[in-house]
Amino acid sequence: MTKSLLLVAYAFPPYGAVGARRAAKLAKFLPEFGWQVRVLTVSIAEYPESWIDSTSGRDDAASADVHRTRALHWRRVREDGARWLPYLVPAIVRSVRQARPDVVLITCGPFFQLAVTPLLSLWKVPYVLDFRDPWVTGGLRPVARNHGARLRRALAKAVERHAVLHAASIVVVSRPLREAYRTAYPQLPPERFAVVPNGYDPADFAQAGAVRWAVPTLLYAGKFTTSLGLRNPRPLLEAIRLLRAEGLEVCLVHLGDKEAAFTSVVDELQLADAVKSTGPLPYAETLSYCKGADILVVIGGGSSGEQTGKVFDYIGAGRPILALAREDSDLGSIVSSLPQGRVLANGDARRVAEAIRTALKAPPRGSGADPDPRFLRRTIARDLARVLERSLPRRREERQPPAGTQATTP
Predict the structure, then answer these.
(1) 140-170: b or e for each residue (b if 16 or more CB lie within 10 Å)?
(2) What are the pLDDT digits (tens) for 370-380?
(3) Can you state the angle between helices 283-292 and 310-317, rounded to 10 degrees?
(4) How much is the pTM?
């Protein structure tokens, strides 16, 4: 029997962020496992214009039942989930009354949208949390330097605590993050926490050509500075300088915005002629660049639970992968499990240079990969469907809103 799912996702195509692709792929594949998906998201106008990507998730979202709302615009409210909340609440009311979902899945960040969970608890609507990134638990804890920052952190702790304690299941993307949540909430049974990683869809690569370069090319996709800290590019750039001093004209292609933490090191090491920054690219074009590179580079930020979305696109591209990360991290364990993967601590430029040299001497691999079933988006959707099944209420009448509850129009 087909079940009904309300998927609450701030990030959804044509938004070009990684989180939008996760939501879109769930909307694409969950129907194969018996779930009818209704998506609740924000208006396209709420996304930064530079992040609109008409190629990202276009086909995935084509058949989805998508409902969009506005978000609040007030300079004192900066977190996207908090801006969405005044419009999300009445939209949730309408969706629960109209669609009568068996389960609500809230994927985040942003995070303050989780403040809707008391309403779901009141109505006895089971909900599942999908933490693509850590929030209070497992995340960085910056020093609260003023009253406003302390208040925001206290509010975040309260919202996360209620959301987690009353959730039917809590999904995270890595084993270390699951352990962090189990430790933070020991009163909950361990089986309530599940790991459902990110992944890739071979269909996205089928039509992507391979962008080739005249010289050996390393490729890094995405940001160096993130909310979880700096992915330090210095050892990689110093390794490139060492190789070029030996006569190996290797270059680095960076797909993403220029960042001071990166460009300052490039200038210091006088590597401007060895580095090309493309700026943000449409997703389909990003995949073409990945398929044509000689080595795909991912840099960890130092967290054991870190699992960057780009590594799964790298796996789909089928090219050699060099991870400069902790070997005991989730990122390190994924890359080291691949036949084309190599993991090194991000520190010794000479070791990095040697790893690059070795990879370039290896027999060439064709672009495109034999699908790794562990990380296929269809596999991810199947695993999440199992979590949703465990979250179903025993009786449908247990999850209906109180009689006479009225939805309001934003």
Answers:
(1) eeeeeeeeeeeebeeebeebbeebbeebbbb
(2) 667 889 999 99
(3) 50
(4) 0.88
